[in-house]
Amino acid sequence: MNAQRKKRSKTVKLSDITAVILAGGLGTRLRPAVFDKPKVLAEVCGRPFLSYLLDQLCRAGTREVILCTGYMGDMVQKIYGDTYKSLHLLYSLEDEPIDTGGAIRLATPLFKSDVVLVMNGDSYIDADIVSYVDWFFEKDRQASILLTRVSDTGRYGMVKAEKDESVLAFEEKGVARGSGWINAGVYLLKKSLIVSIPPGKVFSLERDFFPSLVRKGLLGYQCKGSFIDIGTPESYATAEKFFSERKTEGC
Protein backbone atom coordinates (compact mmCIF):
# COMPACT_ATOMS: atom_id res chain seq x y z
CA MET A 1 0.00 0.00 0.00
CA ASN A 2 2.84 2.41 0.79
CA ALA A 3 4.33 1.83 -2.65
CA GLN A 4 0.93 2.42 -4.21
CA ARG A 5 0.45 5.62 -2.20
CA LYS A 6 3.88 6.85 -3.28
CA LYS A 7 3.05 6.15 -6.90
CA ARG A 8 -0.30 7.91 -6.66
CA SER A 9 1.18 10.97 -4.98
CA LYS A 10 3.40 11.53 -8.00
CA THR A 11 0.45 11.66 -10.38
CA VAL A 12 -2.24 13.37 -8.26
CA LYS A 13 -1.15 16.45 -6.38
CA LEU A 14 -3.00 19.27 -4.68
CA SER A 15 -1.78 21.52 -7.47
CA ASP A 16 -3.94 19.43 -9.85
CA ILE A 17 -7.07 19.73 -7.73
CA THR A 18 -9.46 22.67 -7.46
CA ALA A 19 -10.11 23.61 -3.84
CA VAL A 20 -13.39 25.16 -2.73
CA ILE A 21 -14.01 27.04 0.53
CA LEU A 22 -17.63 27.50 1.59
CA ALA A 23 -17.54 31.10 2.78
CA GLY A 24 -21.12 32.29 2.34
CA GLY A 25 -22.72 31.49 5.68
CA LEU A 26 -24.82 34.12 7.44
CA GLY A 27 -23.11 33.44 10.77
CA THR A 28 -26.33 34.14 12.69
CA ARG A 29 -25.18 32.47 15.92
CA LEU A 30 -21.86 34.33 15.81
CA ARG A 31 -23.49 37.71 15.18
CA PRO A 32 -23.27 38.86 18.84
CA ALA A 33 -19.45 38.60 18.63
CA VAL A 34 -18.91 39.43 14.94
CA PHE A 35 -21.67 41.71 13.67
CA ASP A 36 -19.98 43.83 11.00
CA LYS A 37 -18.42 41.23 8.71
CA PRO A 38 -18.98 37.72 7.34
CA LYS A 39 -17.99 34.81 9.57
CA VAL A 40 -14.90 33.89 7.52
CA LEU A 41 -13.46 37.36 8.24
CA ALA A 42 -13.80 37.02 12.02
CA GLU A 43 -10.40 38.03 13.40
CA VAL A 44 -8.20 35.53 15.23
CA CYS A 45 -4.83 36.81 16.44
CA GLY A 46 -5.27 39.86 14.23
CA ARG A 47 -5.99 37.92 11.04
CA PRO A 48 -9.21 36.81 9.32
CA PHE A 49 -10.09 33.19 10.07
CA LEU A 50 -10.15 32.54 6.33
CA SER A 51 -6.39 33.20 6.15
CA TYR A 52 -5.67 30.13 8.29
CA LEU A 53 -7.53 27.93 5.82
CA LEU A 54 -5.76 29.52 2.87
CA ASP A 55 -2.39 29.04 4.58
CA GLN A 56 -3.18 25.38 5.13
CA LEU A 57 -3.92 24.98 1.41
CA CYS A 58 -0.72 26.85 0.53
CA ARG A 59 1.35 24.48 2.64
CA ALA A 60 -0.31 21.47 1.02
CA GLY A 61 0.55 22.68 -2.48
CA THR A 62 -2.84 23.90 -3.69
CA ARG A 63 -2.73 26.42 -6.52
CA GLU A 64 -6.34 27.43 -7.19
CA VAL A 65 -9.13 28.11 -4.70
CA ILE A 66 -12.77 29.00 -5.33
CA LEU A 67 -14.37 31.04 -2.56
CA CYS A 68 -18.13 30.45 -2.43
CA THR A 69 -19.36 33.71 -0.97
CA GLY A 70 -22.77 35.10 -0.08
CA TYR A 71 -23.45 37.32 2.91
CA MET A 72 -21.13 40.36 2.62
CA GLY A 73 -19.23 38.51 -0.10
CA ASP A 74 -18.01 41.76 -1.64
CA MET A 75 -16.03 42.39 1.55
CA VAL A 76 -14.22 39.06 1.18
CA GLN A 77 -13.29 39.81 -2.42
CA LYS A 78 -12.17 43.35 -1.58
CA ILE A 79 -9.78 42.08 1.12
CA TYR A 80 -8.29 39.10 -0.76
CA GLY A 81 -8.54 40.03 -4.43
CA ASP A 82 -7.45 37.40 -6.94
CA THR A 83 -4.27 36.17 -5.24
CA TYR A 84 -3.20 35.08 -1.78
CA LYS A 85 0.47 34.11 -1.51
CA SER A 86 0.85 31.29 -4.07
CA LEU A 87 -2.91 30.82 -4.50
CA HIS A 88 -5.05 32.00 -7.37
CA LEU A 89 -8.48 32.96 -6.02
CA LEU A 90 -11.79 32.77 -7.87
CA TYR A 91 -15.21 33.77 -6.55
CA SER A 92 -18.64 32.22 -6.85
CA LEU A 93 -21.19 34.62 -5.37
CA GLU A 94 -24.69 33.46 -4.50
CA ASP A 95 -27.41 36.09 -4.86
CA GLU A 96 -29.46 34.58 -2.04
CA PRO A 97 -28.72 31.89 0.55
CA ILE A 98 -28.79 28.40 -1.03
CA ASP A 99 -26.89 26.52 1.72
CA THR A 100 -23.68 24.56 1.33
CA GLY A 101 -24.85 22.15 -1.36
CA GLY A 102 -26.44 24.90 -3.42
CA ALA A 103 -23.27 26.97 -3.14
CA ILE A 104 -20.94 24.24 -4.36
CA ARG A 105 -23.34 23.37 -7.18
CA LEU A 106 -23.33 27.02 -8.28
CA ALA A 107 -19.52 26.96 -8.44
CA THR A 108 -19.19 23.90 -10.72
CA PRO A 109 -18.52 25.90 -13.92
CA LEU A 110 -15.28 27.09 -12.28
CA PHE A 111 -13.98 23.58 -11.47
CA LYS A 112 -10.86 22.58 -13.39
CA SER A 113 -10.56 19.07 -11.96
CA ASP A 114 -12.79 16.01 -11.83
CA VAL A 115 -12.28 15.77 -8.05
CA VAL A 116 -12.53 18.84 -5.82
CA LEU A 117 -11.36 19.47 -2.26
CA VAL A 118 -14.07 21.24 -0.28
CA MET A 119 -13.58 22.99 3.07
CA ASN A 120 -16.06 24.61 5.42
CA GLY A 121 -15.14 28.24 5.95
CA ASP A 122 -15.91 28.29 9.67
CA SER A 123 -13.84 25.33 10.92
CA TYR A 124 -10.23 24.17 10.93
CA ILE A 125 -8.81 20.67 11.32
CA ASP A 126 -5.10 20.17 12.00
CA ALA A 127 -4.80 17.46 9.34
CA ASP A 128 -2.32 16.34 6.70
CA ILE A 129 -4.27 17.27 3.58
CA VAL A 130 -1.69 15.67 1.28
CA SER A 131 -2.10 12.29 2.99
CA TYR A 132 -5.87 12.66 2.71
CA VAL A 133 -5.60 13.21 -1.04
CA ASP A 134 -3.17 10.29 -1.43
CA TRP A 135 -5.61 8.03 0.41
CA PHE A 136 -8.53 9.13 -1.76
CA PHE A 137 -6.75 8.26 -4.99
CA GLU A 138 -5.45 4.87 -3.83
CA LYS A 139 -8.77 3.48 -5.06
CA ASP A 140 -11.58 4.70 -7.28
CA ARG A 141 -13.34 6.60 -4.50
CA GLN A 142 -16.27 8.87 -5.23
CA ALA A 143 -16.93 10.89 -2.07
CA SER A 144 -15.29 11.21 1.32
CA ILE A 145 -15.53 13.14 4.56
CA LEU A 146 -12.56 13.85 6.79
CA LEU A 147 -13.48 12.73 10.30
CA THR A 148 -11.94 13.67 13.62
CA ARG A 149 -12.53 12.28 17.08
CA VAL A 150 -13.81 14.51 19.90
CA SER A 151 -14.60 13.83 23.54
CA ASP A 152 -18.22 15.02 23.25
CA THR A 153 -20.12 14.67 19.98
CA GLY A 154 -23.28 16.30 21.35
CA ARG A 155 -22.64 19.69 19.81
CA TYR A 156 -21.61 18.37 16.39
CA GLY A 157 -23.49 15.15 15.75
CA MET A 158 -21.80 11.78 15.37
CA VAL A 159 -20.68 9.97 12.23
CA LYS A 160 -20.73 6.19 12.39
CA ALA A 161 -18.37 4.31 10.09
CA GLU A 162 -17.33 0.71 9.48
CA LYS A 163 -13.76 -0.56 9.76
CA ASP A 164 -13.58 -0.45 5.96
CA GLU A 165 -14.26 3.33 6.26
CA SER A 166 -17.81 3.18 4.85
CA VAL A 167 -20.07 5.76 6.47
CA LEU A 168 -23.09 4.02 8.01
CA ALA A 169 -25.07 6.80 9.60
CA PHE A 170 -25.22 10.39 10.82
CA GLU A 171 -26.64 11.11 14.25
CA GLU A 172 -28.00 14.60 14.76
CA LYS A 173 -26.63 17.15 17.19
CA GLY A 174 -27.69 16.59 20.76
CA VAL A 175 -28.80 12.99 20.18
CA ALA A 176 -25.54 11.17 20.88
CA ARG A 177 -23.18 12.15 23.69
CA GLY A 178 -19.69 11.05 24.61
CA SER A 179 -16.63 10.50 22.44
CA GLY A 180 -16.88 9.65 18.79
CA TRP A 181 -16.16 10.69 15.21
CA ILE A 182 -17.53 13.93 13.79
CA ASN A 183 -17.55 15.60 10.41
CA ALA A 184 -14.48 17.89 10.34
CA GLY A 185 -15.71 19.89 7.35
CA VAL A 186 -13.19 18.79 4.70
CA TYR A 187 -14.35 16.73 1.74
CA LEU A 188 -13.07 15.16 -1.47
CA LEU A 189 -15.87 14.84 -4.02
CA LYS A 190 -16.12 13.88 -7.65
CA LYS A 191 -17.63 16.58 -9.82
CA SER A 192 -20.00 14.01 -11.34
CA LEU A 193 -21.71 13.71 -7.94
CA ILE A 194 -21.83 17.45 -7.30
CA VAL A 195 -23.63 18.15 -10.59
CA SER A 196 -26.43 15.83 -9.40
CA ILE A 197 -27.38 18.52 -6.86
CA PRO A 198 -30.41 20.50 -8.12
CA PRO A 199 -29.09 23.84 -9.46
CA GLY A 200 -30.34 27.06 -7.93
CA LYS A 201 -32.03 25.31 -5.01
CA VAL A 202 -31.48 25.48 -1.26
CA PHE A 203 -29.57 22.27 -0.62
CA SER A 204 -27.39 21.18 2.28
CA LEU A 205 -24.32 18.97 1.99
CA GLU A 206 -24.71 17.90 5.61
CA ARG A 207 -28.48 17.29 5.72
CA ASP A 208 -29.30 16.35 2.12
CA PHE A 209 -26.26 15.32 0.10
CA PHE A 210 -24.16 13.15 2.43
CA PRO A 211 -27.08 11.22 3.98
CA SER A 212 -28.18 10.28 0.44
CA LEU A 213 -24.76 8.65 -0.11
CA VAL A 214 -24.78 6.51 3.04
CA ARG A 215 -24.06 2.86 2.07
CA LYS A 216 -23.63 4.08 -1.50
CA GLY A 217 -19.90 4.76 -1.53
CA LEU A 218 -19.51 7.58 1.01
CA LEU A 219 -16.30 7.01 3.00
CA GLY A 220 -14.82 8.55 6.13
CA TYR A 221 -11.11 9.32 6.45
CA GLN A 222 -10.24 9.18 10.14
CA CYS A 223 -7.87 11.82 11.47
CA LYS A 224 -6.77 12.56 15.02
CA GLY A 225 -5.90 16.21 14.43
CA SER A 226 -7.18 18.96 16.70
CA PHE A 227 -10.36 20.64 15.52
CA ILE A 228 -12.08 23.97 16.06
CA ASP A 229 -15.09 25.72 14.62
CA ILE A 230 -16.04 29.34 15.20
CA GLY A 231 -19.78 28.97 14.76
CA THR A 232 -20.72 30.31 18.19
CA PRO A 233 -19.35 33.12 20.38
CA GLU A 234 -18.17 30.48 22.87
CA SER A 235 -16.15 28.48 20.34
CA TYR A 236 -14.88 31.64 18.65
CA ALA A 237 -13.51 32.79 22.00
CA THR A 238 -11.22 29.73 22.08
CA ALA A 239 -9.78 30.25 18.59
CA GLU A 240 -6.87 32.48 19.62
CA LYS A 241 -5.63 29.89 22.12
CA PHE A 242 -6.10 27.13 19.54
CA PHE A 243 -3.87 28.77 16.94
CA SER A 244 -1.38 30.15 19.46
CA GLU A 245 -0.67 26.63 20.68
CA ARG A 246 0.15 25.64 17.12
CA LYS A 247 2.43 28.61 16.57
CA THR A 248 0.48 29.47 13.47
CA GLU A 249 1.40 32.68 11.66
CA GLY A 250 -0.40 35.61 13.24
CA CYS A 251 -0.42 34.26 16.79
Overview of the molecule:
There is one protein chain. The protein has 251 residues and is α/β, with parallel strands linked by helices. It has a single domain (2-143, 185-203, 228-245), classed as Spore Coat Polysaccharide Biosynthesis Protein SpsA, Chain A (Alpha-Beta Complex), CATH 3.90.550.10. The protein contains nine helices and 14 strands. It has helices at residues 2-11, 49-60, 73-80, 99-106, 129-138, 191-194, 205-212, 233-236, 239-245, and strands spanning 18-23, 43-44, 47-48, 64-69, 83-84, 87-93, 115-120, 123-125, 143-150, 158-161, 167-171, 180-190, 218-223, 227-229. The protein has an eight-stranded mixed sheet with strand order 5-6-4-1-7-12-9-13, sandwiched between helices. A hairpin with a 2-residue loop joins strand 2 (43-44) and strand 3. Helix 1 packs across helix 5 (129-138) and helix 4 (99-106) crosses helix 7. The longest helix is centred in the first third of the chain and has 12 residues, at 49-60. It is globular, with a radius of gyration of 17 Å. Residues 1-10 have low confidence and may be disordered.
Quick structural gist:
The chain has helices at 2-11, 49-60, 73-80, 99-106, 129-138, 191-194, 205-212, 233-236, 239-245; strands at residues 18-23, 43-44, 47-48, 64-69, 83-84, 87-93, 115-120, 123-125, 143-150, 158-161, 167-171, 180-190, 218-223, 227-229. The protein is an alpha/beta fold and 251 residues long.
